[in-house]
Design brief:
Number of strands: 19
Number of helices: 12
Strand content: 25-35%
Helix content: 25-40%
Organism: Halobacillus salinarum
Number of domains: 2
CATH class of the largest domain: Alpha Beta
Protein name: Phosphoribosyltransferase family protein
Shape: globular
Keywords: Glycosyltransferase, Transferase
CATH topology of the largest domain: Rossmann fold
GO molecular function: glycosyltransferase activity
InterPro entries: PRTase-like, PRTase_2, PRTase_dom, TRSP_dom, UCP020967
C-alpha cells in the first residue's frame, strides 16, 4: 500500500520560554502531518510541584477557545494515524490539512466530513478509552471516526458504585482516574486504544495497562496522543512491560520528540477573578433544558434503587460506555439539540460555548451545529498561572465552584473582555440559580451580555 502520511523526522531543537528563568528545550523527532509547533501548542506554567509547566493545546478546546470542528478534526487525524499505521487505510491528506489549518467554518466542516467519509470503510472492533478530564472529547472523537469501535471515558467523579478500574495520573492536580462500566465492557479480548492529549513520561498509560491487564487481560494496546515527549528511558519502560505481560503496545502521535524543563515550579497563582457573591449580578441569564434530546443513563438504576441519581446522568457522554451502534444516535441527538440552540441564540456575533469539566464532546458537537462565530472550550480542575503577555498560553484566569458540585473548584482561562456577546454554559446535571451566580458575574466582568445555562440530563426534584 502506498502510504499518504509522510513520517517527517526533523531532529529540530528549539528552546521555548515560559516565564523568567523557566523554559523547555525541545527536540522534534517525528511530525507525520508536518504541523508547526505553534499550530499545536503554546506554553504556560502550572501551579503544581509535580510538574511545573504545561503544553497548552491549540487544538483540544480545553484551555484555549477554538472553532468546534478543530478538535473534532484533530480526533480524526489520530484515527487516521491508527488506521494507516495498521495498513487499513489509504487517505490523501493534503486537502484535509489545507481545510483544517484554515480559520473558515465551512472548510473546517469539510475537513471533518472528508475524514469521516474516507474512514467510513475502516471497521475495527476495538475499545477506545479517553482519559479524563482533558481527553474525554478527543477519545470520543477517535471512536466516532473508527467505525465498529466502542467508547468509554475515565472519570474523576466519585459515584455510589465501585469502579471496575482505578489508576493514578500521578502528575495531575487530581490524581485519581476511575472507570465505571458493566464488567462485560472490559471482559472481552478486543484491542484497547488509550487516548490522551499528551504523553510526557507515559506513566498514566502504564498505570492503566497494568491495572486493566491484572483484571481483564488482552494482547494488544495502542496509545494515541497529540504530543509524545517520552524519553529513551520512558520508552524502554513500555518495552519492559510488553515483555513482562506478553503484550503489544503501539504508540502514535501528531508530534513525537523529547523535552527538558529548566526552572523552578510555582507554589501559587494569581487569578483576575473570584466569585463576588456579595454583589449579585444583574446579568440576564436563562436556563435551557435539552434533556429531551438525550437518554437518561440506566447504568445506576441498580444502585440502591436511587432513581434521582440515574436522572442526573445521560447515556451519550460515554462515562458508562457507548457501543459502536450508539455513535450515529449521539450525532443525531447533538444535531437536533444544536439546531434548537441555534434558534435560541439572539445574535450573529461571537458566541462562546463552554463545557463543564469532563463534559466536552457533546457540547462541542452541539456547538458545531449552532451556526457561525461559535467558539468552544471548557472549565477545568487544573490551576494554571495566568500572565497577560504576548505568546504566553494563559492570558487570564478565573476561578469558581463547580456549579454541579460546590466542593470542587473549577478554573476557566482566556476569556478576553468585550469579545463574546453571549455564553452558552453546558452542564450534564441541572444546576441551581445560586450555583450560576459566579459565572453570571464573570460574564458581567468580561462584557458578555447574555448567559444561557444548558442542562443535558433530567434532574431530580431538588434541582433549581
Amino acid at each position: 500500500m502506498k502510504s499518504t502520511i509522510t513520517s517527517i523526522y526533523s531532529q529540530k531543537k528549539k528552546t521555548l520560554p515560559i516565564l523568567k528563568d523557566m523554559n523547555v528545550e525541545l527536540q522534534v523527532n517525528e511530525n507525520p502531518f508536518d504541523l508547526s509547533l505553534d499550530q499545536l501548542f503554546t506554553m504556560a506554567a502550572r501551579v503544581n510541584k509535580k510538574r511545573a509547566f504545561l503544553f497548552v493545546s491549540e487544538l483540544l478546546g480545553k484551555h484555549i477557545p477554538v472553532k468546534p470542528f478543530v478538535p473534532l478534526v484533530t480526533s480524526g487525524l489520530l484515527a487516521l494515524l491508527y488506521a494507516e499505521r495498521n495498513n487499513k487505510a489509504d487517505i490523501e491528506t493534503k486537502a484535509i490539512l489545507s481545510d483544517f489549518l484554515s480559520d473558515d467554518d465551512e472548510r473546517l466542516g469539510q475537513a471533518f466530513s472528508k475524514l469521516k467519509d474516507q474512514l467510513a470503510h475502516f471497521q475495527e472492533d476495538v475499545l477506545v478509552i479517553g482519559f479524563a478530564e482533558t481527553a474525554t472529547a478527543l477519545g470520543h472523537g477517535v471512536s466516532d471516526m473508527l467505525r465498529g469501535s466502542a467508547y468509554l471515558h475515565t472519570t474523576r467523579e466519585d459515584l455510589p458504585h465501585s469502579p471496575l478500574v482505578t489508576f493514578e495520573e500521578e502528575h495531575s492536580h487530581a490524581v485519581d482516574q476511575l472507570c465505571y462500566a458493566k464488567p462485560e465492557w472490559l471482559q472481552s479480548d478486543k484491542p484497547v486504544i488509550l487516548v490522551d492529549d499528551e504523553i510526557t513520561t507515559g506513566k498514566t498509560a502504564i498505570n492503566i495497562i497494568n491495572e486493566m491487564h491484572s483484571k481483564f487481560p488482552r494482547d494488544e494496546y495502542t496509545v494515541l496522543s497529540i504530543l509524545d515527549w517520552r524519553s529513551t528511558d520512558d520508552r524502554r519502560r513500555f518495552s519492559d512491560i510488553e515483555k513482562d505481560l506478553g503484550i503489544t503496545i503501539r504508540s502514535y502521535s501528531l508530534l513525537t520528540g523529547e523535552m527538558n524543563f529548566r526552572g523552578k515550579s510555582l507554589s501559587k497563582a494569581s487569578y483576575s477573578y473570584g466569585p463576588r457573591m456579595e454583589d449579585p449580578p444583574k446579568l440576564d441569564f436563562q436556563f435551557i433544558d435539552v434533556s429531551n434530546f438525550f437518554r437518561s443513563s440506566d447504568w445506576l438504576k441498580s444502585v440502591e434503587g436511587n432513581q434521582s441519581i440515574e436522572k442526573d446522568y445521560i447515556h451519550e457522554t460515554g462515562r458508562f460506555g457507548l457501543t459502536a451502534d450508539d455513535h450515529d444516535s449521539v450525532t443525531a441527538a447533538c444535531k437536533a439539540a444544536g439546531e434548537y440552540l441555534r434558534s435560541v441564540r439572539s445574535t450573529s456575533g461571537k458566541i462562546l460555548c463552554l463545557g463543564a469539566g469532563e463534559l466536552m464532546y457533546l457540547p462541542m458537537r452541539m456547538a458545531a451545529f449552532m451556526g457561525k462565530e461559535i467558539y468552544f472550550h471548557s472549565t477545568t480542575r487544573s490551576p494554571i498561572h495566568p500572565v497577560d503577555k504576548e505568546g504566553y498560553a494563559i492570558r487570564n484566569g478565573f476561578t469558581f465552584p463547580n456549579p454541579e458540585n460546590f466542593e470542587i473548584q473549577h478554573f476557566l482561562y482566556n476569556i478576553p473582555k468585550s469579545t463574546y456577546e453571549e455564553l452558552f454554559f453546558f452542564t450534564e446535571k441541572p444546576v441551581s440559580k445560586a450555583s450560576i451566580q459566579p459565572i453570571a458575574s464573570l460574564c458581567e466582568e468580561c462584557g458578555i451580555a447574555k448567559l444561557y445555562v444548558v442542562s443535558l440530563a433530567k434532574g431530580s426534584d431538588d434541582h433549581r
